[in-house]
């Protein structure tokens, strides 16, 4: 795979901080100008000599020369908007979205490697939830990460069950709704997932919202694609980890209802809410107005089924498309499980990722 695929540059929207006017260009070419070719070569040689003579001195080269590039780099990506990022990656009308904070970078890379194998990586947009992730991803893969301010607290956003984690995940429907409003198809994935095959053949038809079950009970291979009936808590158990939507009124309605549900059920110490119940309530309350589609369990199993029921895995071998490493908590535990099932790709296939070895 050629490196040029990974170095495609997005439109630069910031003005050049040192614009060169036609007048200044003409003046710089006059024979008597101070910035002649010989002068520039002399200055360049002087900088090299200073570097050899004072390699460890912070005063040998002006700090403005050392850090101006990094400041321009950071200001460029801070100003990068979601609409600009979507236009850059969504050239075929579809965007694959994930939301990532720094602790999840190894999982991002593992997930991304699996997408590269299916040749859909150029559609990927990383919604960075901290500035480290924003700058790190765009340094390696320009244009494929964007941060929608304000950034959540990076120290707590990854702790499942915390208010920071809720604040992190509750932003998701707003991002997805904005992408739908821009007119794009959007697929959302959690990054503790791995693609074993191309999911897009399963996303055919004209349904508004596609999703996968989060129940571990085995369904028949020809199970219904309708929204499952409510469980004991009065709502279905659909996973918010994998969602595909078309830019229809129905899909937008589900996202708006999801946002309302999250506002009505805020996080508290007594009730440590997360975003998935809100998604399920939104599906149930809009089911009569929206064309919903449950993806086949054999192709999109929950982690509680794939990693727990070896008999079922053997019976459905070759049918799995996307595996979700849920029903387990903790980075190390998730990585260990992935390794046990030969799904941790980072160690041997990092060179296939546009991010390389990133952490």
Automatic annotation (TrEMBL):
GO MF term list: UDP-xylosyltransferase activity
Gene Ontology terms describing biological process: rhamnogalacturonan II biosynthetic process
Membrane topology qualifier: Single-pass type II membrane protein
EC number from the UniProt entry: 2.4.2.-
Record domain Nucleotide-diphospho-sugar transferase: where: 120-338
InterPro entries reported in the protein's UniProt record: Nucl-diP-sugar_transferase (IPR005069), Nucleotide-diphossugar_trans (IPR029044), UDP-D-xylose:L-fucose_XylT (IPR052636)
Top EC class for this record: transferase
UniProt similarity note: Belongs to the glycosyltransferase 77 family.
Protein name (Swiss-Prot/TrEMBL): Glycosyltransferase
């Amino acid at each position: 795979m050629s490196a040029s695929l990974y170095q495609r540059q997005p439109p630069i929207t910031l003005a050049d901080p040192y614009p060169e006017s036609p007048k200044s260009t003409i003046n710089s070419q006059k024979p008597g100008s101070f910035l002649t070719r010989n002068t520039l070569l002399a200055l360049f040689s002087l900088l090299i000599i200073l570097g050899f003579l004072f390699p460890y001195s912070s005063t040998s080269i002006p700090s403005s020369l050392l850090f101006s590039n990094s400041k321009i780099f950071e200001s460029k990506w801070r100003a990068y908007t979601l609409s600009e990022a979507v236009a850059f990656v969504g050239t075929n009308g579809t965007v694959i979205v994930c939301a990532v904070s720094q602790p999840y970078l190894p999982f991002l890379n593992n997930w991304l490697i699996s997408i590269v194998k299916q040749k859909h990586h150029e559609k990927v947009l990383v919604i960075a939830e901290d500035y480290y992730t924003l700058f790190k991803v765009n340094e390696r893969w320009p244009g494929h990460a964007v941060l929608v301010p304000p950034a959540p607290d990076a120290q707590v956003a990854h702790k499942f069950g915390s208010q920071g984690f809720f604040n992190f995940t509750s932003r998701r429907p707003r991002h997805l709704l904005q992408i739908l409003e821009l007119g794009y198809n959007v697929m959302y994935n959690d990054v503790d997932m791995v693609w074993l095959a191309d999911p897009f053949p399963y996303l055919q038809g004209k349904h508004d919202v596609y999703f996968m079950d989060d129940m571990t009970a085995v369904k028949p291979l020809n199970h219904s694609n309708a929204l499952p009936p409510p469980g004991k808590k009065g709502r279905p158990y659909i996973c918010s980890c994998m969602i595909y939507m078309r830019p229809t009124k129905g899909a937008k309605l589900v996202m708006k209802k999801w946002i309302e549900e999250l506002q009505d059920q805020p996080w508290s110490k007594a009730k440590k809410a997360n975003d998935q119940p809100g998604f399920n309530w939104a599906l149930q309350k809009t089911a009569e107005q929206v064309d919903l589609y449950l993806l086949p369990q054999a192709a999109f199993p929950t982690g509680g089924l794939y990693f727990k029921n070896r008999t079922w895995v053997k019976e459905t071998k070759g049918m799995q498309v996307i595996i979700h490493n849920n029903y387990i908590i903790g980075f190390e535990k998730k990585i260990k499980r992935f390794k046990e099932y030969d799904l941790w790709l980072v160690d041997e296939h990092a060179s296939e990722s546009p991010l390389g070895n990133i952490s």
